Amino acid sequence: MTLDMGQVVRLLPELVERARTDAHQREQRLDEALRLLHAAANDLAGVAHVVEAAETSWALALPYREPFDAAIAPPAELPTDYTVLAVDGSSIDVDRNLPLACFVINLGWMHICYGDKPAACYGSTVDIQPTSDELFMRDNDDPSRETMVRGEALSLLRSVREMAEAAACAARFADERPLLALIDGTLALWNVEKRDLPEAVVTMLRDGPRGARQALDSLRDLAHDHPVLFGSYVSRTGATNVANTLRLLACPDRPHVVCRRCPGKGKGERPCDAVGIASDALLMRALLAPWQRSAVFLPRRPGATSDTWYREAGHEIGFFYLNTGEEIARVELPLWIADDVHRLGLLHGLLVRQARDGMGYPLALREAHEQAVISSTDRQAFITLLSQTCEQSGIPWLISAKAWQKRVRAI
Amino acid sequence: MIDSPLVTAERYGRVIKSTVETFVAECFTNAAAPPLGELLVVEDGTPIIAIVADISTESRDGTRPLGLHGGPEDDLQHVLDANPHIPALLRTCFTGVVAGYWEDHHLRQYLPSAPPPVQARVRRATAAECAGLIASFDFLRLLLGVAPHADDAIAAALRRLAPPEPERRPFLVRAGKALTVLLAEDPPRLHALLRRLQG
Asked: Which of A175, A301, B34, B104 could bridge to B38 as Cys pair (CB 3.0-4.6 Å)?
């Protein structure tokens, strides 16, 4: 054991005591945030003005069409015949200690039919990219700027592939019954510019084959002819869009808030700290009763260029929060779903059913995850198969000295 | 001699685990498992005749046990209608106890030299194949020693193998006499098994 538990035990009481004494202050800040939320509930134009004029690094939220403090129950009447499709993905990252540099993406899906003809089917699709060329995405303007598809780039690629798989499966399963199509995680390629990826890479993820645009176009076209609903589900969200927006509303400099000119700068105390809460989840837990959803919000990030792409492509993304009783989830959806009141209600209602069946998490997503997950046994089997295939083809497996030492661990 | 597959009965599943004495097969369809005591033939490889000694349904993923669904007032159909994903995530398997094998068109009522191959298909035995088995009761010794529910499997198999009246009673009497020899040192077990034969 290299972690000195003696030191840990001496440090923990201070940490816990600080959290305990902060609790009262947190309650006060939450009450103040709620008061501000209710006060601004129907002043959507006023909130929009503050948000659009703000110069800040914070991610913000604009209420779309419903009151800022809306707490909306699911529809009382829902169809008994409907289907649910969920897609999830996992991956094996590039490992330089393997005989071949490659990544693996495994996409799992589950389709469940409820009503007169109950049924279910599931499956998975594997994508292995083995060649060095395909592992690199290059900037056409500067070919020396290249990004290996690994780490964050692989994670983004996987998200986009999940969207594409959802679109493909939805096309296969859509019929006259409402179809709720879900993917796990965030729908939008947020913060792409912060990940320092070449523009060509981002363009490929958005506009390339099996990219985000193609998937969203396909789903929208499908929704024209079928009762298809689509969204992404973020479990136990840590987002702070609404909480940050309340800070702007509390700022004495509003309606034009410039955080660089904060009145509290230099004093170590920001006026907006009076309503500072750690996450939107804390706010929504106080606002929403179980199974209620919040208003639909539009995310806004001053200075971010990536958001405009969605608007220009006709797929602007909104989100709402859902209290599942167990947690606050964030549901992201294209506005062409949110604009249709009936579809929005149906999305809400069917999500509630799924979360109830799945003990707080959409059941179909849970099962899609089970089809997608790559266990440690699977990974080891993949490595074994890869090394055997390479050996049979005359490709040697040269392992680094460090990796060898990790395996042997001899003294 | 085993019958041509063209006149064979339905295929139940494939072998997923095997020894020379027993095998486990997964059903093609959960709802179409063979009943206890059914006579089976393992195709694909040395043809083997076996008897169903156990049937089970469980979660397909051993790390995910099936939990309880529905309330006390919900009948089975209601629970399955409300949870259509459950049947898709289950599998039904059956255990076959080897009763013999065919070699040069002769049925040997002792263990083969190798277990049935994994992924071999398993089907119901035809009437002719069953008739070949009951020419002798040597296979009972194989079942008594190894079947998970030996007595119930043997009784169910013999009731199935018994021809229609008026030959039924004489057949069961002959089977009873064979069991009497095999279980001479365990009278309570013998009597219990003979009562099962009367079904």
From this structure: B34
